[in-house]
Amino acid sequence: MSTHISSRRQIITVVLLVFAVIGGLMRWLAPQPSLARDMGSLLLVLWLPIIGNIIAWLVARAARPKQVQAGFALDSAFVPSAQISLTLLAADVPAASRPIRSGLFPCMLVVGHEAFSARLCVPAGAEPVPEVAQTLAVQFLRADLALPKLPVGTAFKLLEGRSVLGTGHVVE
Questions:
Q1: Torsion over CA: 123, 125, 129, 133 (sign)
Q2: CA-CA distance, 90 to 97, in Å (whole number)?
Q3: Which one of 137, 162, 168, 169 is most buried, counting C-beta atoms within 10 A?
């Protein structure tokens, strides 16, 4: 669920709340049987659909996790968990033919229906080339969970975000 509320939605909410206040004032100030009092009632009724959005926003805000999801600390040292053989897939466009640059590369290794957060250590000048196997060191965020599912020889897919960048297998 997205926690971002669009500016258009915020403007609509404010406008409908202002209509509700105007409608309430009109009903309060207008004499009992009058057109102004009926218009005030209509303005109050126009506001009713927005109350569901306000309640949903409050519930989502209350249910939102208070802490940031765990990930690799920016200043943490690379400690290899395993060695993998990685073969990048051929790219459709030349600009995407070298998606992994030297340094630490955050990714996920997918085996079946399970994915494990990891980062690769790519040596300078040894960036992977599409359709050429290369051995790289990998560090898992939770090595205690990943390594039992990734014994030597296990095939996997390498993801960055939702994009499959390549395939490979565990070497050691």
A1: negative
A2: 7
A3: 168
Distance between CA atoms of residues 107 and 164, nearest Å: 10
What is the pTM assigned to this prediction?
Answer: 0.58
pLDDT tens digits for 11-30?
888 888 888 889 989 999 99
Tokens representing 118? 């990891």
What the block records as the tokens of 162 is: 């939702």
With contact defined as beta carbons under 8 Å apart, do 65 and 140 qualify? no
Q: Which residues are bridge partners to 106 per DSSP?
A: 119
Token digits of residue 94? 């030349």
- Residue linked to tokens 């009632």: 41
Helix (H) / strand (E) element for 54: namely helix 35-63
Model confidence band, residue 69 (pLDDT cutoffs 50, 70, 90): low
Q: How many CA atoms lie within 13 A of 151 on its CB side?
A: 1
Q: Angle 144-118-65 (CA atoms, 0-180°, nearest 5)?
A: 80
* Greatest alpha-carbon span in the chain: 85
Alpha carbon distance 116, 130 (integer Å): 22
Q: How far apart are CA 30 and CA 25, in angstroms?
A: 8
Interior angle at CA 162, CA 71 and CA 63, nearest 5: 55
Cβ proximity of 86 and 134 under 8 Å: yes
